[in-house]
Structure formats: C-alpha cells, structure tokens
Amino acid sequence: MARDYYEVLGVSRGASQDEIQQAFRTRARRLHPVVNKDPDAEERFKELNDAYSVLSDPKTRARYDRFGDDWRKIPEDWEERVGAGAGAGAGGGGFRGWTTAGDGGRVRFTRGFGEDAGGGGVDFEDLFGAFFGGGAGPGGGGGRVDIPGADQEAELPLTVEDAFHGGHRVVTLAGPSGQRTFEVDVPAGVVDGQRIRLAGQGGRGTGDAPAGDLYLRVRIQPHPRFRLEGRNIHVTLPVAPWEAALGATVPVPTPGGTAKVTVPPGSSSGRRLRLRGEGMPNPRGPDGDLFAEIRIMVPPSLSDRERELFEELGRTSSFDPRSEQ
C-alpha cells in the first residue's frame, strides 16, 4: 500500500490548507533532486507531489479521507450518489469505512446503516449498481460501473550481488487465492526501497475494468562483507602491518568481482580508500563508489624468525603510537 499522504507531508489529518501548503514547500525545498543527491530523492519528491496534489484540493482530499488509496476509483459526485442510494434503499445513513477483501484485491465497504447493516460488506458492483438504479448488465441502461483493480505491493528480497548484477528472476508470492509466480526483470543497480512495477498483476477489476498493478519493493538483505549507503558500497580491507607501513597494491572484493587498490605507505586502521565507480550501477547517472576501510591485522601466531624481526623492529623504531593521539 502507498504511504499515507498526511504522513508524507508530515501534517495531521486535521491540518488546514495553509498548513498543508507550508509543509509541502518546506519538504519540496529539501527533497528536490536538484539539491538532494540521495538515490531515492526523485521518488520521494514525486511521492510528495502526489500527496500535495491530492490534499491541496478540498474535493479530492474529502474522497481520500473517506476512501484512502482507492479514492481515484470513486466518482467526483460520490456524495450525491451515496445520498441518493441511501434514501432509496437504506433509510439514510452513510458509509463509514473500508477494508480490503481477500478475493483478489477487491475493496469492500462496511455499511453504517444501523440495525440493517448486519456487519456485512458491499462490494463495488453491488454498491454502484444500487447508486445507478440497479441492473449489472452491460446494455439497456443497466447502470453497471467497471472499477479498475487495486494496486498491490509485495517485498522482493535481494542479495547485494543480485541487486548489483540485476537479471531475470522467477518470484513466487503467496496471496489470498494461493501462490502466484511471476517472471521479473531486475534492473542492475536497484537500491533498497526501489519499486519494480508489474503492470496488470495487481487486484482484479470489476466488470471489464483492467486489473491493478503489482509493485515489488526491493529489500536488500544484510551482507557479511558489504554495507550499502545508497549506491555507495563500504567494505573492510584487511592488510598486514608491513603492507600498511610500506605501502602495497592489494586485492579488494566488490560485488562485481575483485578489484585492485593501492594502500599508501604509512596507512593506519580506519583510513578509507575510495574506488570511483566500483559501487552500485546507476542507469540514470554516475555509478556509486566503493570505500575500502583499512584494518591492520597481525599474525595470530609467529614463527621464530617473525618474532625476531618484530623484536628487532621494536628495539630500533622510535615510533610511539600513543604519542600521536
């Protein structure tokens, strides 16, 4: 499901139009892709625009407040039709909420007509059939309303390597009507939270209306070696004491394979080495970078000769690491 628009704007549901406008301006300045270089800034800015376009219009806001994510499927004059339908057959009252039914994503409205409600639900076909004078047939003034299916969302877990390379995947999801299998083309360089759209694979529409879309939200799993920050990759680079002291060219792992990095002489633990373009691919701009953080490792046990050399180094060196702090 999409995020709540009030949450996106950071305002309460009782916020005034001025408060909504001010909240939008504040967040738009911070999230605009021109000034915000985060990988997800563009998507978050679009989400902010969507929220503002709905909540800044009193009419669309009223529909959103009543029907949530399915407000777009409700006619603009729904209040008049609800009033007419209630007067004709329900004896007054109105609709007070909605839940998602387990029959392929169709939305069911909970009726609020007092003793006649019975705690049941009315699906869109029944609901709008009553509003337009009954009759679900397609011809002869039948009054059927075709409602597009609801969009749905599921998580797609990926390893760092899968996200780096992308490629064709077969995904099986469990739903109310059983398991469904999809073929998905994962773009190389997807980042955590990014959505992949499968058109027409969401909830079923009513009548002849099309099905909704299915959105797979990428969730990159923790990795024992790589840590992601946007499109940048961080990795620990173990080096020997002599490599850190004298400098060396050493291999460093990346999701795309092994690369080479030069350790400058005199490097200490914690120093970060940057490999440009070795991070996550970016189809819309420069690739991310890889940062290798040096960690000096000592042998867990020493041979006699190694011990002699370290003892000689200890006697001849004037270096005091504690005086450098």
Automatic annotation (TrEMBL):
**Domain named J: which ranges?**
4-68
Q: Which domain of life is it from?
A: Bacteria
Q: Where is the composition biased (Basic and acidic residues)?
A: 305-314
Name the Gene Ontology biological process terms.
Answer: protein refolding
Q: Which GO terms describe its cellular component?
A: cytoplasm
What's one Pfam family here?
A: DnaJ_C
| Protein's recorded name | Chaperone DnaJ domain protein
